[in-house]
């Protein structure tokens, strides 16, 4: 019984539950908080030197999970409105339903093993398949 109480105590240190939050959101944040806490416990058990504090570990996990989404929101230099012609737009567009295209940046000849990697997002300007991680290296033709 003591293990459950201490786990809940550790979990609710960083939880910010407000009365205005919907019940489903509270459940999702609670589950996510428990997953991060479990990951931190495993991290502490498997790491002997240079351990992060719990708040730093949480920031690292959240930063790593959100990096793909943030990469799709950044505007690479080659997609900004340039001198030749009107600006068509920039960024990625998700393909409808389950359609996929080959990633222009990391698929085929551009992949070290020649593998074909598929993407569900395309470049807004040229319409070629591009992963969010590959957007910074993508050049419109």
TrEMBL record:
Name of the featured protein: PiggyBac transposable element-derived protein domain-containing protein
